[in-house]
Every structure is written in C-alpha cells, then in structure tokens.
Automatic annotation (TrEMBL):
It comes from Candidatus Enterococcus willemsii. Gene3D superfamilies: HAD superfamily/HAD-like. Transmembrane segments: none annotated. GO terms for molecular function: hydrolase activity. Pfam families: Hydrolase. NCBIfam families: HAD-SF-IA-v1, HAD-SF-IIIA, YqeG_hyp_ppase. InterPro entries: HAD-like_sf, HAD-SF_hydro_IA, HAD-SF_hydro_IIIA, HAD_sf, PGPP1/Gep4, S-2-haloacid_dehalogenase. This is HAD family hydrolase. Keywords: Hydrolase.
Length: 175
C-alpha cells in the first residue's frame, strides 16, 4: 500500500536537476508543484537560483509546467514573471492535472517527470498517472495551514517506505 507513495528519485532540490540528467532518463518535460517545490509558499517572487534553473531548462528545450492544487489566480500570479504554463486546481493526489499537463505538451508518459515536495499529493498523483517522480526537500521549513496535516502523515509513511526500501536516499542529483 505505501508503495503508492514511493518516488522514483529523491533529490535535495529541483535546482539540482539538470537537462543532462533528465535526457539520460529519456525525460523531455518537467511537471512541477509550485509551493515549497519551485518557490517558497510564502514568497511567490522566487529566487535567482530558480530563474537560472528555468533559463537552463529553456535553453535545453525542456518545458517546465506547474501543476498545482492552488486556484488559477494564485498560480498565475506566481508564474507570470517566469513565463511558465500551468494547470491549476490539479486535484492532486488524483492524476487529473498531471494527465492534462503532459497531454498538452504532447509527450508520452515515459518522457515526463513530476517534481514535488509532498509524497501524499505530488508523488501519489505521479504514481496514479503512471509517470516518474522526483521528491525534493521543501524550499522552506514552514508550510501553509493546509499542508501541515499532510506533513504529519507523510512522516509516518516515509518511515515505513524507508524501512521497506532502504535504497531510498536523498541525492545531490538525479542518479
């Protein structure tokens, strides 16, 4: 049961994932959660590190699409400065938003990856959609009130996952 929450990879931060690493695994597009994955949930302006990473992805012709449970107004405001496509109200852990995003990109399931900081929403949705996933550490150590309950449950699930899958380890890059 808990294997439904198992990520394909665990990388310290989305910014450490390079086009070369993605291409090595046949990945042509990145779907990403917004809050605490791409940007801090309480700082929608992003960082220079984020801007540099997005530019590297753009130069490598790897589209990045935000797949968020937030409403369209919130997501649009956060991503407009980065000129990113998005799917709002994705309904993660359901696969609806992920399916919509990769179909709009016109790529196969095996050519896309979902990056997120929560196993109960992002990783579970990726597994339901049948795509690869990357769990990243949250950008900041605080969460909105909506996420706090998930974090509590995630700790219990991660403990069981790590016991069953000792190969699950945080990496500095996509292996």
């Amino acid at each position: 049961m808990f294997s439904n929450y198992k990520p394909t990879w665990m990388v310290d931060a989305i910014y450490k994932v390079t086009p070369e690493q993605l291409k090595k695994h046949g990945i042509k597009a990145v779907l990403t959660d917004l809050d605490n994955t791409l940007i801090a949930w309480n700082n929608p302006d992003g960082t220079e590190e984020l801007r540099a990473w997005l530019e590297i992805m753009k130069e490598a012709d790897i589209p990045v699409v935000v797949v968020s449970n937030n409403n369209a107004e919130r997501v649009a405001r956060a991503v407009e400065v980065f000129d990113l496509a998005y799917v709002a109200r994705a309904l993660k852990p359901l696969s609806r938003g992920i399916n919509k995003a990769y179909r709009e990109l016109n790529v196969d399931k095996n050519e896309v990856v979902m990056v997120g900081d929560q196993i109960m929403t992002d990783i579970r949705a990726a597994n339901r959609a049948g795509i690869k996933s990357i769990l990243v550490k949250p950008v900041v150590n605080t969460d909105s009130w909506k996420t706090k309950m998930n974090r509590f449950l995630e700790k219990k699930i991660m403990k069981k996952l790590l016991k069953k899958h000792p190969e699950m380890k945080w990496q500095g890059e996509l292996q």
